[in-house]
Amino acid sequence: MRRSLRQLKVNQPETRSPQSSDGSPTKRQRLISRKGSSTRSGSLDKNNHLLPPLESITREKKFPVKTEMARNCTSKFVSISSGDKPVFSQIKTEKQDLKDDENKNPIILPRKAQKTVSEHDREMNDIKPVVDGHASDDSDAEHGSLSYEQIREKNLRENELFFASLGIDQAKEMLHASVKKPKKPTLKGLKIKKEEILPRRHSLRIKRIDPEGIQMPEPEPLIQVAEQTRLPEGPLDMKESFYSKGNPDGDKHLMAFKALFKDKKRKHAKQEKEISNFLSDLSKMSISEGCVAKVVPERVFSVGWHPAESPLIAFAGDKWGTVGLWNVFSQDEDQLVTAFKPHTRPVSCLKVPSVAQHKLYSCSYDATLRCGDFEKGVFSEVFSVPEADDDLFRNFCFYDTFQTLLVSQLSGNVSLVDVRTPKTSAEQVFKVSHKSLRTVSINPFQHDHFITAGTDTNICLWDMRKMNQKSPKPLQVLDQHTRAIASAYFSPSGHKIVSSAADDQILVFEVPSSGGEIQLGTRIRHNNCTGRWLTNFQPTWHPTIPNIFVVGSMARPREIQVYDAFQGTVLRSLSNEDHLGSVCSLNVFHPQRPCTLVGANSSGRLHVFM
């Protein structure tokens, strides 16, 4: 128990101050008496007025009145060493007498002094007497003979009742009920077999010790990374190129998609009617649980649509050479998704020509370009470079009548390829950059003009008729970007160019129809920092609606942004917290369904808004 300083000093035996051997005061006593003489007896100020003793001033500041009452009260307490019991009745009687005297002769004091007196009364009433060597406390009387654990449990119960009265538990339950838990990714689509990981053994072999206890030489690595070598040259049978080899239903899947990949007449809708209804239909686009499926096992590097309006087929290429096909409206789970493996490195571009809808062209980082013919059931090799060149293909686009292609390469070359020739080499190769290329795009209405973009931060315009294989010169260089460019594409009308780069900008250029110089039209600030594990954003034009393009976004909640290229504003942000929980880096509109969009993320899933 804590005791006041006054209680400890009451009735203590007086101690004599030390003196010298002859009885005279010591030097320290003389200094104290000399210093205190002026304060105890009073001293003169600079006007020769007598000052009151310092002790009385200090005491009056603390207790201006009732000092005698406090002295009488404290004298009744017994010290710890004496062990005598206090006489409570006498204390109460003396207090009552003092109060009676004050009532008869009230003392009028200033407000501050009255406040100080009340505080002093409160302090004096709070003083507890000492009983049998222990100070009495209200808590002792309240708890009685309870043990510490019982008191602690009682306090816990009281605290629980107090918090329950505040309604905190009910508010917590209401908050948990209002928060929606994110749904797990859909398991619909491609089935991936997970390899069983065995626990690591701590044996003598791992410690490189033989049974005799002799140290063994350094062993070979336990885990060897399989080298992704290029597949054999020539055509590959689709049955042998299934992602999951040994699947007994592989033939059924192949026959089902052979029936879907047939040449159909393309309908050309009136563009004026589509433009007038596009904005109203855009506001109605949504996604449901059935419009999400896992099509490829790894990160998506390319995505696209089959040009036929029905059936609705989306395809994607992933990081390790897998090409997946998804029949969106299929009710049969077994024939919903089919995947092939015609490459061994990332599939960077996939396209189906509108004049030959039974063919699927794909190029890859393994420096091969293949054509999947679903009528013949083979992946034929169209173009490749020697594996020793350490080159890779970025993208390709059809030139003129879909019989020739332009291919962009890591080495800075653009190759002109004719798919009708039996050889797998390029017809012409143009060295257009000393750094890596990212994209090549041909003007749809001026087939001799094409643009290239890459890590040199420039977009170059070229004329095929004036190309020189040794030292080609561009018609115009657009240097508005300051960092590496991810993509640059002509619009379907050929009057605009959209590009994105690592400088967090999307630029829209105006291409004059008269053949003049290309001018910068719109500059859009956009977060393009996708990082290492996401595919770079590539703005893609709407195939039928002019001045509209779509691009991914890093914003939360996750969304896909549809832009107006003329004004540089967002027309609609497509989002859904239940079914779209990741970044869709690649997004493409359907060529026959203006308000149908597919987006691909880094886990191999496709999301369809319609």
UniProtKB/TrEMBL annotation:
Domain of life: Eukaryota
InterPro entries linked: WD40/YVTN_repeat-like_dom_sf (IPR015943), WD40_repeat_dom_sf (IPR036322), WD40_rpt (IPR001680), WD_repeat_DNA-damage-binding (IPR050853)
Cellular component, GO annotation: nucleus
WD repeat start and end residues: 478-511
Biased segments, Polar residues type: 9-26, 35-45
An annotated GO BP: regulation of DNA damage checkpoint
A GO molecular function held by the record: DNA binding
Alphabetic keyword roster: Repeat, WD repeat
Keyword match Transcription: no
Pfam families for this protein: WD40 (PF00400)
Region (Disordered): 1-63
Function: Specifically binds 5-hydroxymethylcytosine (5hmC), suggesting that it acts as a specific reader of 5hmC.
PANTHER family: WD REPEAT-CONTAINING PROTEIN 76
UniProt similarity note: Belongs to the WD repeat DDB2/WDR76 family.
Record protein name field: WD repeat-containing protein 76
Organism: Elysia crispata
